[in-house]
Amino acid sequence: MNIKQELGKIGVRGGHGINDNVLPSKYGYPKYVEGKYVHELSQTLSDAYGFVNLEPEITKLKWSTIAKRGRDAGCDTILYNHTNFSVNSKGELNRGVALIIYPFENEQYRSMYEQMAKIIAQHMNLPSWSTRIRMSKNYANKNYYSALHYGIKYGIRHPLIVEYGYHVDVAGREAERIVQIINAFKEMLWSKDAADQNNPDTPALAPVDIKADIIKHLQDVQAYIDQKINTL
C-alpha cells in the first residue's frame, strides 16, 4: 500500500492545550510540557511538508470543531500529535514506544499503520512500536477517543492519534526529536520505499521540496542540538 497516496491530504493538530501535561519534576527530568511540544511539532510539520495545521491558535477547540476544520480543508487524514505518559507497577516511567491509535472502523488499514509506527520508532531510535484500537466502555461500537469518533463522523478517512514515544523520551531533547520526526515523515511519504511494494512499476515518489525557511529552521535546530551536546 502506498502510504502517501492512501493518507492523501494531511491535517495535524497538537493533541493538548499549550500548557497541558507537565512531566512531574519528581522524576528528575528536565521540565517538559507536552502541550507546548506537540504544538511546535505540528507547526513544524505544517511548515516543512504543507500539512494543514488545524489549530494554529493556542486554544482548546472541541474535537468536533477540529474534525469539521479538517473536512472543510479537504483533509483525508488528521494526525493528533501526542507524547505518552504512564508508569509501571513499580512506579517507574514507561518509555520507548511509538504508538498509533486508530478507529475500529479502519482495521483493514492496520498493516499501513504498523509500517508508519515502525518508521517513526526507527527514526527516533525507540526500541518498540505498536498500534491499537480502544473501544468505549459505555457505548457499543464507539471509539473511546472523541478525536477518532468525530473524525470518522465528519468523513476523515484516517483520524489517527500518534504517540511519539513517552514524555521521558522527549524531555530535554525536544528539538532533536522534532528533526527525527520530520525525517520519519520524509521517509514515510517521499522516499523510494514509500512506492507501492505490490506494484514494481509504481515510480518512486519525488523528494520533498522543503521551503527555504524550514531548511533554515532545521539548521537552527541542529545548531541548538550541537550546542546542547557540547555542554554535556
Topology:
Layout lengths: L2 H5 L2 E5 L19 H16 L2 E2 L9 H10 L4 E8 L12 E5 L8 H14 L4 E5 L13 H8 L4 E9 H4 L3 H17 L21 H19 L2
Parallel strand pairs: 1-2, 1-3, 3-6, 4-5
Antiparallel strand pairs: 4-6
Helix pairs in contact: 2-7, 3-5, 4-7
Detailed description of the structure:
There is one protein chain. The chain is an alpha/beta fold and 232 residues long. It has one domain (3-230): 3-Layer(aba) Sandwich (Aminopeptidase). The protein is 40% helix and 15% strand. It has eight helices and six strands, in the order αβαβαββαβαβααα. The protein has helices at 3-7, 34-49, 63-72, 110-123, 146-153, 167-170, 174-190, 212-230; strands spanning 10-14, 52-53, 77-84, 97-101, 128-132, 158-166. Strands 2-1-3-6-4-5 form a six-stranded mixed sheet, with helices on both faces. Strand 1 (10-14), helix 2 and strand 2 (52-53) form a beta-alpha-beta unit. The chain starts with a helix and ends with a helix.
